[in-house]
Recover the amino acids of this structure.
């Protein structure tokens, strides 16, 4: 059993192509770019995430002797190819959008420049890393915009498609603006704040609800949040009011109550009234249970007195848009621009840069997709990250990434910040890039 960091975590056709490249001496420099072809329905913008894990993968790329032996036993690869893999290290350059950057369709978020076999071999894992975290960060960003000022916690590990997915979802949602996660390992690995309350099973395991509340409070007195919808939500809220003075005498404060089902608008207002009438004005209300950004927006519009939300399935699976139409494509080889021309999947050739312009108020007004050397108005979004196989700077802290993400969301046009369907930021293709595409098309036509 090999770990998730193994270079065998790839598609067989990558290995097939690399042997063919080596057999025919195709070792010149290649340029690949990763981008999203088109935005999913109801997505007016996306957020880049996963760069740190992508760079870590590239920097530590190495086949073990056991992995080489396994390939030798199970596939008909040549000894020369296997010797190449045994010596392989990533030696290329990477330019990328920093994590937390807002991006749009056709804009490369990472550019890999390396000898063709190296740049080809890393395709599958790079897409795997960048795609998933960007999917989750983009979904989380919508929830941040839908519920401004509210506490948002990732509850999604149990519904994630695998352990790594759950862990990376905690990271991606946190950098997008969530306040924390329920996933304990996320604190150990990334320093993300971890939150937890109780499950209905704890209440059910006791003969009465008050005893369950009291015993849990004594065992876990810090940041105490009690789950009150196992049986009768309003009755449970009254029990909390009665119990609170007893707990206070023991130095235990009830910090909040949690709702996990029912009509959250009606119940939250009723519970808030019960708590306030009982003098528990500082006790917060936290809600969970099948929430997404649409539900958050409804609750905000109804002025539901809910202070925070736990988001599970809709976040870690990005249930309405679980995958982006993304690609990692060859844009240049041996100094010559290349272009895919398949119907519906045509690419813009050459090394590219994205230039973003802002209005006087600091808001985004448009992007320009241009060749890397063709300077345009605005700020370039892709920056140097790796040179000759080594990172250029220490990783950005999650705190810095969160600031970048928050700034990007604040700079979105009003319609995008309010999640209006059918709107996005205009992305203009520079004349020089259009001209290069036409030139590549003429060259390809002459070869047919």
């Amino acid at each position: 059993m090999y770990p998730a960091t193994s270079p065998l975590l790839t598609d067989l056709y990558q290995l097939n192509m690399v042997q063919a490249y080596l057999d025919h001496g195709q070792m010149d420099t290649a340029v690949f770019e990763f981008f999203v072809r088109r935005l999913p329905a109801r997505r007016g913008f996306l957020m880049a995430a996963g760069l740190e894990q992508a760079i870590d993968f590239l920097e530590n790329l190495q086949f073990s002797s056991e992995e080489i032996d396994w390939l030798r036993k199970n596939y008909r690869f040549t000894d020369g190819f296997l010797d190449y893999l045994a010596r392989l290290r990533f030696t290329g350059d990477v330019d990328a959008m920093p994590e937390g950057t807002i991006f749009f369709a056709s804009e490369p978020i990472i550019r890999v420049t390396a000898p063709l076999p190296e740049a080809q071999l890393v395709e599958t894992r790079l897409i795997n890393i960048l795609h998933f975290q960007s999917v989750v960060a983009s979904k989380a960003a919508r929830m941040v915009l839908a519920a401004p000022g509210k506490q948002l916690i990732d509850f999604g590990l149990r519904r994630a498609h695998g352990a790594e997915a759950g862990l990376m979802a905690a990271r991606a949602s946190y950098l997008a603006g969530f306040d924390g996660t329920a996933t304990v390992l996320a604190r150990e690995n990334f320093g993300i704040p971890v939150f937890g309350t109780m499950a209905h099973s704890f209440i059910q395991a006791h003969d009465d609800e008050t005893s369950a509340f009291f015993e849990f409070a004594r065992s876990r007195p810090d940041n105490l949040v009690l789950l009150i919808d196992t049986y009768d939500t309003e009755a449970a809220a009254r029990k909390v009011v009665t119990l609170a003075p007893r707990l206070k005498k023991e130095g235990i404060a009830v910090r909040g109550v949690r709702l996990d089902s029912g009509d959250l608008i009606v119940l939250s207002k009723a519970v808030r009234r019960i708590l306030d009438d009982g003098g528990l004005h500082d006790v917060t209300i936290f809600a969970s249970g099948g929430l997404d950004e649409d539900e958050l927006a409804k609750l905000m519009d109804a002025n539901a007195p809910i202070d925070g939300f736990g988001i599970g399935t809709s976040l870690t699976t990005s249930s309405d848009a679980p995958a982006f139409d993304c690609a990692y494509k060859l844009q240049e080889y041996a100094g010559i621009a290349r272009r895919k021309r398949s119907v519906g999947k045509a690419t813009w050739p050459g090394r590219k840069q994205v230039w973003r312009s802002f209005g006087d108020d600091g808001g985004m007004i448009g992007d320009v997709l241009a060749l890397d050397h063709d300077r345009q108005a605005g700020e370039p979004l892709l920056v140097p990250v790796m040179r000759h196989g080594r990172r250029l700077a220490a990783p950005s802290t999650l705190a810095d990434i969160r600031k970048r993400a928050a700034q990007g969301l604040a700079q979105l046009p009003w319609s995008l910040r309010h999640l209006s369907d059918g709107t996005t930021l205009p992305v203009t293709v520079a004349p020089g890039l259009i001209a290069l595409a036409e030139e590549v098309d003429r060259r390809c036509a002459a070869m047919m």
Observations:
- The chain has two domains: 12-136+321-447, 148-316.
- Residues 12-136+321-447 form a domain with the nicotinate phosphoribosyltransferase fold (CATH 3.20.140.10).
- The CA atoms of residues 100 and 305 lie 30 Å apart.
